[in-house]
Amino acid sequence: LGTAGELLVLQYEHRRLWTAGKRRLADRIDHVASTRGDHLGYDIRSFDESGRERFVEVKTTQFGRMTPFFATRNEVEVSKNEADRYQVYRVFSYAKNPRLFVLPGPMAQTCTLLPTIYRASVKGIEER
Protein backbone atom coordinates (compact mmCIF):
# COMPACT_ATOMS: atom_id res chain seq x y z
CA LEU A 1 0.00 0.00 0.00
CA GLY A 2 2.84 2.39 0.84
CA THR A 3 4.55 1.87 -2.50
CA ALA A 4 1.24 2.19 -4.35
CA GLY A 5 0.63 5.56 -2.68
CA GLU A 6 4.15 6.70 -3.55
CA LEU A 7 3.61 5.79 -7.21
CA LEU A 8 0.33 7.72 -7.23
CA VAL A 9 2.09 10.79 -5.80
CA LEU A 10 4.92 10.42 -8.33
CA GLN A 11 2.32 10.63 -11.10
CA TYR A 12 0.65 13.60 -9.40
CA GLU A 13 3.94 15.49 -9.02
CA HIS A 14 4.96 14.74 -12.61
CA ARG A 15 1.61 15.94 -13.93
CA ARG A 16 1.73 19.06 -11.69
CA LEU A 17 5.10 20.15 -13.09
CA TRP A 18 4.30 19.06 -16.66
CA THR A 19 1.08 21.09 -16.63
CA ALA A 20 3.00 24.11 -15.30
CA GLY A 21 5.33 23.87 -18.29
CA LYS A 22 8.23 22.61 -16.16
CA ARG A 23 8.91 19.43 -18.11
CA ARG A 24 12.64 19.31 -17.34
CA LEU A 25 11.87 19.46 -13.62
CA ALA A 26 9.17 16.81 -14.03
CA ASP A 27 11.74 14.50 -15.60
CA ARG A 28 14.10 15.01 -12.63
CA ILE A 29 11.67 13.83 -9.95
CA ASP A 30 13.29 11.00 -7.97
CA HIS A 31 11.55 8.23 -6.05
CA VAL A 32 14.35 8.22 -3.47
CA ALA A 33 12.68 5.53 -1.35
CA SER A 34 13.42 3.10 -4.18
CA THR A 35 16.60 4.61 -5.66
CA ARG A 36 18.45 5.52 -2.45
CA GLY A 37 16.63 3.66 0.32
CA ASP A 38 14.08 4.37 2.98
CA HIS A 39 16.34 6.26 5.40
CA LEU A 40 16.20 9.87 4.12
CA GLY A 41 13.04 10.87 5.98
CA TYR A 42 11.07 11.37 2.77
CA ASP A 43 10.04 9.25 -0.22
CA ILE A 44 10.18 11.59 -3.22
CA ARG A 45 12.45 14.44 -4.23
CA SER A 46 10.45 16.78 -6.40
CA PHE A 47 10.54 20.49 -7.18
CA ASP A 48 8.42 23.57 -6.91
CA GLU A 49 7.83 25.57 -10.06
CA SER A 50 10.92 27.74 -9.44
CA GLY A 51 13.16 24.65 -9.39
CA ARG A 52 13.64 24.52 -5.64
CA GLU A 53 13.75 21.01 -4.19
CA ARG A 54 10.65 19.66 -2.47
CA PHE A 55 10.93 16.70 -0.08
CA VAL A 56 7.74 14.63 -0.10
CA GLU A 57 6.85 11.98 2.47
CA VAL A 58 3.84 9.90 1.40
CA LYS A 59 1.43 8.44 3.95
CA THR A 60 -1.28 6.21 2.45
CA THR A 61 -4.38 4.62 3.92
CA GLN A 62 -7.40 2.81 2.56
CA PHE A 63 -9.46 4.53 5.23
CA GLY A 64 -10.69 8.11 5.61
CA ARG A 65 -8.77 11.36 5.55
CA MET A 66 -8.51 11.73 9.33
CA THR A 67 -7.09 8.24 9.95
CA PRO A 68 -3.97 8.60 12.14
CA PHE A 69 -0.67 7.52 10.59
CA PHE A 70 2.73 6.58 11.92
CA ALA A 71 5.79 8.73 11.40
CA THR A 72 9.34 7.79 12.24
CA ARG A 73 11.57 9.93 14.39
CA ASN A 74 13.69 10.60 11.31
CA GLU A 75 10.68 11.79 9.28
CA VAL A 76 9.69 14.16 12.09
CA GLU A 77 13.26 15.49 12.39
CA VAL A 78 13.69 15.98 8.63
CA SER A 79 10.32 17.76 8.49
CA LYS A 80 11.64 20.14 11.17
CA ASN A 81 15.11 20.63 9.65
CA GLU A 82 13.80 21.07 6.08
CA ALA A 83 10.57 22.84 7.08
CA ASP A 84 10.40 25.15 4.06
CA ARG A 85 10.91 22.28 1.59
CA TYR A 86 9.12 19.40 3.38
CA GLN A 87 5.59 18.16 2.69
CA VAL A 88 3.58 15.15 3.76
CA TYR A 89 1.20 14.00 1.05
CA ARG A 90 -1.66 12.22 2.79
CA VAL A 91 -3.28 9.75 0.39
CA PHE A 92 -6.58 8.37 1.67
CA SER A 93 -9.48 6.18 0.50
CA TYR A 94 -6.88 4.49 -1.68
CA ALA A 95 -8.89 1.38 -2.64
CA LYS A 96 -12.17 3.16 -3.40
CA ASN A 97 -11.42 6.65 -4.67
CA PRO A 98 -7.86 7.79 -3.93
CA ARG A 99 -7.52 11.42 -2.95
CA LEU A 100 -4.83 13.44 -1.25
CA PHE A 101 -4.05 16.55 0.68
CA VAL A 102 -0.77 18.18 1.62
CA LEU A 103 0.61 18.94 5.07
CA PRO A 104 3.42 21.48 4.52
CA GLY A 105 6.35 22.09 6.84
CA PRO A 106 7.18 20.51 10.16
CA MET A 107 4.86 17.67 11.18
CA ALA A 108 4.68 19.17 14.68
CA GLN A 109 2.79 22.15 13.21
CA THR A 110 0.27 20.20 11.13
CA CYS A 111 -0.20 17.08 13.26
CA THR A 112 -0.59 16.12 16.88
CA LEU A 113 2.40 13.88 17.56
CA LEU A 114 2.28 11.19 20.23
CA PRO A 115 5.74 9.70 20.80
CA THR A 116 4.87 6.02 20.69
CA ILE A 117 6.69 5.71 17.45
CA TYR A 118 4.81 8.81 16.52
CA ARG A 119 1.12 8.67 15.90
CA ALA A 120 0.13 11.66 13.82
CA SER A 121 -3.47 12.84 13.62
CA VAL A 122 -4.11 15.32 10.85
CA LYS A 123 -5.31 18.74 11.92
CA GLY A 124 -7.90 20.44 9.71
CA ILE A 125 -6.16 20.90 6.32
CA GLU A 126 -7.81 21.65 3.00
CA GLU A 127 -8.01 18.76 0.56
CA ARG A 128 -6.51 19.03 -2.93
Strand content: 25-35%
The string of secondary-structure elements, in order, is: HHHEEEHEEHEE
Q: Which regions contain 5 or more consecutive residues with pLDDT less than 50? A: none
- The geometry reads as globular
Structural class by secondary-structure content: alpha+beta
- Total number of β-strand segments? 7
Strand order across the biggest sheet? 1-2-4-5
Q: What is the first-to-last residue Cα distance?
A: 20 Å
Radius of gyration: 14 Å
- How does the major sheet shape up? 4 strands, mixed
- Number of helical runs? 5
Helical fraction equals: 25-40%
Mean pLDDT score: 94
Describe, in plain words, how this protein is organized in 3D:
The protein is an alpha+beta fold. It has 5 helices and 7 strands. Strands 1-2-4-5 form a 4-stranded mixed β-sheet, with helices on both faces. A 3-stranded antiparallel β-sheet has the order 3-7-6. Strand 4 and strand 5 (99-104) form a beta hairpin. The model has no long low-confidence stretch (mean pLDDT 94).
Distinctive features:
128 residues; alpha+beta; four-stranded mixed β-sheet; three-stranded antiparallel β-sheet; 7 strands
Structure described in brief:
The protein has 128 residues and is of the alpha+beta class. A four-stranded mixed beta sheet has the order 1-2-4-5, with helices on both faces. It has a three-stranded antiparallel beta sheet with strand order 3-7-6.
